[in-house]
Here is the input.
Amino acid sequence: MNGRPVKIALRGLTKSFGKKHVLRDLDLDIYEGESIAVIGASGTGKSVLLKNIVGILTPDSGSIKIDGEEVTGLSGNARDRVNRKLGMLFQGAALFDSLPLWENVGFGLMSAHGVSRADARIAAIERLRQVGLDEDSADRFPADISAGAQKRVGLARAIATEPEILFFDEPTTGIDPIMGDVIDKLIVKSVKELGATALTISHDMDSARRIADKIAMIHEGKIAWVGDVAKIDNSGNEIVDQFIHGRVDGPMSASLLGTPAA
Amino acid sequence: MSLIPAIGRVFLSFLASTGRLAMFAGVSVSHIFRPPFYPHLLLRQIIEIGYYSLPVVGLTAVFTGMVLALQSYTGFARFNAEGAVATVVVLSITRELAPVLTGLMVAGRIGAAMAAEIGTMRVTEQIDALSTLATNPYKYLIAPRLLAALIMLPCCVLIADIIGVYGGYLVAVHKLDFNPAVYLKNSWQFLELVDVISGLVKAGVFGFLIALMGCYHGFYSKGGAQGVGSATTNAVVSASILILGFNYLITEAFFSQ
Ligand SMILES: Nc1ncnc2c1ncn2[C@@H]1O[C@H](COP(=O)(O)OP(=O)(O)O)[C@@H](O)[C@H]1O
Ligand SMILES: [Mg+2]
Here is the structure.
């Protein structure tokens, strides 16, 4: 696509938990500088996919290449070296609740990039400002702020080290539509400014349309459809149609009824 | 009919969790020695484990020393061996009671706190967040705790030795009318360096076990608040049992000819 190199290449990715087969032989290419949204029903393995890529989970089989380098099975320093290229916003924000907000945001700079505390604080306050939090909030703790603000701090933490690849796991789920809109805009802006490759997980079509250039639909452990955002309404794919129109009847329902949502 | 497979399964899962614990301990210990180091985290744990445990450790030791003097006096008076009270107090405290009781008290305090803190970080994905920030959770969370407990438990026990002996002295002199100078002389006379050293070695081992159990159960906890709750319980129970078991093994290693 446009002659751009592939940033993340997934081949035959398979992951089961006991008898539960979550990812089954999944293939996906993500090109450098593109922003892709992975959509799909709850419990279809979107978070599991992301956790495999960032090394929190290890796939049962298959290959994950980042910049052409095989990263499955990396651990310790080798994994940390790869992870310096990426930033992630967790579904539940996952802020460090023992640290004030500025240390959360500056954590990666101090811990993995050798930036001093004083400089990290300055950089963190600037990032907090970018996501709409003032300097006074820098010394507050995650427990003292709202869920929407926590997501924004999580976003600030993910972009603080200016990573090449950004992962966002349901950035707008569980927060009100107005704040969701704000966060979507922040994501688009951050990705543009950093020139990063971005993978956003969502089950909200509107949000996915706003954030991404490209959409991939996950269904029964595979990518059922992938294409440009503009083409999603005429995908000719029954699964995609059912999902974007929120219909109860269709090919998705059979597998969903057998699968408790997570 | 299905008994043998059931036993087999229990045995296999026992082996699996023992193996997992051994791996966990090995990886964590290796990170104590490999840079980058986090001195401020070590210092925070040293203060948490050493300094904030002192009130509990001191109270445990003073009452233990006091009751020991009283008990051995009433026992030894039956065969006119009251003179041995000082020796019994100092040997019991340094060899056994200070390390074991300090270990058990700190297990309740520190082991539980570690399991709860790390367990909460696990179930709220904070540990996963650490690794996406290119920070090794073993190095950042586990290694400082293991090292701090290994260093600070012997310090606590040394203080408990002194306070415990002093508790015995108080009861002996003020309640049982011992001569202070004679009591002190008897305390010193039969005390050997190995008595104190063996207690400190025990303390180091207990400290390591307490932190290991707290971190391990926290690290592998799952299933939300309930999972963190059972991790906390398991950390304290398993640390306590290991302390009593290792206490016997170390005593045998030091004192059986
Ligand atoms: N660590 C785990 N252990 C066992 N099952 C898991 C684990 N993580 C996820 N699952 C299961 O995998 C399925 C997909 O989960 P997930 O990727 O979180 O879904 P979603 O697409 O909503 O993000 C769910 O059914 C969930 O129960
Ligand atoms: Mg999810």
Residues 173 and 180 of chain A are 8 Å apart (CA to CA). Chain A has a mean pLDDT of 91. Residues A 46-47, 91, 169-170 surround magnesium ion (ligand 2) (CB under 6 Å). The first helix of chain A runs from residue 46 to 53.
